[in-house]
Description:
By secondary structure, the chain is α/β, with parallel strands linked by helices. It is about 25% helix and about 20% strand. It is built from seven helices and nine strands; from the N terminus they run αβαββαβαβαβαβββα. α4 runs parallel beside α5 (about 150-170). It is globular, with a radius of gyration of 17 Å. The two termini are about 25 Å apart.
Amino acid sequence: MARDRKPFRRRTRVTAVCAAALAIGASALAEVPASAASPPKGHDVSSHQKNVDWSGAKARGARFVYVKATESTNYRNPYFSQQYNGARTAGIIRGAYHFALPNKSSGATQAAYFVRNGGRWSADGWTLPPALDIEYNPYDSRHKCYGLSKAGMVNWIKSFSNELKQLTGRRPVIYTTTHWWNKCTGGSRAFASDHALWIARHDSADAGSLPAGWSFWTFWQYDNSGGLPGDQNLFNGSQAQLRTFARGH
Length: 249
């Protein structure tokens, strides 16, 4: 994810994002519907991208963006307003994401901080559901799962999700990797039925199974560089379906 202090990430790039790369089958990356032969392109940004040229991003094909709002309970992206509001002004559907540090405070506490600092949602067709970015600990490689047990991690995510639902009316989109999810939650299936999946997969050799429970992805972060500022993403559907998803359906 586009973060403010980037952790190590494999840099192998997907050289072509096309129907062949997407249609890997339901047991892996789910097929893109026929109505989405050219799925909407998007990206995600943080303070690394600073003041984004949103009209330029729109001209280069951006149809949606996720903007980092917060991390833990002591950080707010100083460029959040320019990025979040600027995207909307340019006619790009946008949403906010929170970078979780589960070893710092409870899920409910971090969800409340997120909502107070940009993580709200409204059914206006321009606002994506708030997203939870949960991945390996970038600050301590010895405690990649933040020192939590698998059950403890599942409970942390539930706490975050429940608080967000209470405050915004939406469950969070969950951004993660298959490897992290299976290692740190034990392959929990508790979230797939009511949480959209934002899968991070940058290596074509790793285009395998989805995290336990999910049979398809909603967003795919397929590269960390490209034509749009920040990380490159696709939506698994049509532009009309993207707008419907933003409205809460």
